[in-house]
Each structure stands twice: as structure tokens, then as C-alpha cells.
């Protein structure tokens, strides 16, 4: 949560640990604005650390999940298994380019979000690819959220 806004809005990866030391308590939610490439429409995205207090409307508005590759991450979710989660929303597994993904994510319908360790100029291309995937997913599966 510490570095999600810089990644998604500023297209720059910053180390979460370094941000944690500067930022203090972890935010429970962050808002990011993104301009959709096909329409020019600005859309505000709510990023949360927990689904504990989700309402039915929150579940209906869920479009994307970032996973650490641990099944426990999905306890107390509306869907009971990670496979069900990623059947109902887009999934990303962020990792460094030179790391192997955890074995657990191989059976989950998630896209690898490969981040270069030291080539910050590559961050923009990585994040643009993420947004392109998310826009396509929303247009196909959640078009009502775009109106």
C-alpha cells in the first residue's frame, strides 16, 4: 500500500520498505486517478488493503487484485478460493523480473507484473501494460463502471 500510488499514478516503482519508513502508519485505502486511453475519461480507482468491511456494492465494483501469491490473502472473501477470485476479477502478481513466481500462482489466472530491479526507465512501460489490461477487462466485464 505504501508504494501503490507512485506505481499506478506516477508510473514509477519505489521500494515499499523505504516508503514505509518515511510514511508512518499504512493507509487502509488509497485513491488513484487514471485517464482511460480509449475515451480520455478520468476514472478514480479505490485501492484497499483489506476487504473486511466490503459491502455488496464494493464487491460489484472490484475489478483488480494484486496478490502476493498466498492463499491466506483471500480468507473472508466473497469467493472461497483464489481460483474463484481470479475468475471474477483481473489479477496481477507483482515480482522482480529476475525472480520466479511462487508455485501457487501458476494455477491462478493472474498476469505477472515484472518489475526491473534497477532499470526505473522500464517502469512506465510495465504500468502502461497493466492499465491497458485493466481497461480491456473493464470494457469487457464491467462496462457499467465506465459510465
Structure notes:
The chain has 147 residues and is of the alpha/beta class. 31% of the residues lie in helices and 20% in strands. It contains five helices and five strands; from the N terminus they run ααββαβαββα. The strands form two sheets. Strands 3-4-5 form a three-stranded parallel β-sheet, with helices on both faces. A two-stranded antiparallel sheet has the order 1-2. The mean pLDDT is 92.
Summarize the helices and strands and which ones pair or pack.
Blueprint: H1 4-8, H2 16-23, E1 29-35, E2 42-48, H3 56-61, E3 64-66, H4 82-88, E4 90-96, E5 111-115, H5 123-141
Keywords:
147 residues, two-stranded antiparallel ribbon, 20% strand
**How do the helices and strands follow one another from N- to C-terminus?**
HHEEHEHEEH
Number of strands: 5
- Determine the number of helices (DSSP H or I, runs of at least 4 residues): 5
Mean pLDDT: 92
What is the rounded Rg? Answer: 15 Å
Please summarize what this structure is.
This protein is an alpha/beta fold and 147 residues long. The protein has helices spanning 4-8, 16-23, 56-61, 82-88, 123-141; strands at 29-35, 42-48, 64-66, 90-96, 111-115.
Amino acid at each position: 500500500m505504501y508504494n501503490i500510488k507512485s506505481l499506478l499514478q506516477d508510473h514509477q516503482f519505489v521500494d515499499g520498505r523505504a516508503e514505509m519508513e518515511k510514511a508512518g502508519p499504512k493507509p487502509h485505502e488509497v485513491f488513484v486517478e487514471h485517464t482511460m486511453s480509449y475515451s480520455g475519461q478520468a476514472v478514480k480507482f479505490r485501492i484497499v488493503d483489506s476487504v473486511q468491511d466490503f459491502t455488496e456494492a464494493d464487491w460489484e465494483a472490484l475489478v483488480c487484485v494484486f496478490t502476493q501469491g498466498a492463499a491466506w490473502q483471500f480468507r473472508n472473501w466473497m469467493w472461497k478460493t483464489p481460483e474463484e477470485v481470479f475468475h471474477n476479477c483481473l489479477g496481477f502478481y507483482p515480482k522482480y523480473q529476475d525472480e520466479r513466481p511462487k508455485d501457487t500462482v501458476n494455477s491462478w489466472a493472474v498476469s505477472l507484473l515484472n518489475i526491473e530491479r534497477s532499470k526505473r526507465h522500464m517502469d512506465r512501460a510495465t504500468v502502461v501494460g497493466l492499465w491497458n489490461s485493466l481497461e480491456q477487462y473493464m470494457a469487457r466485464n464491467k462496462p457499467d463502471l465506465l459510465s
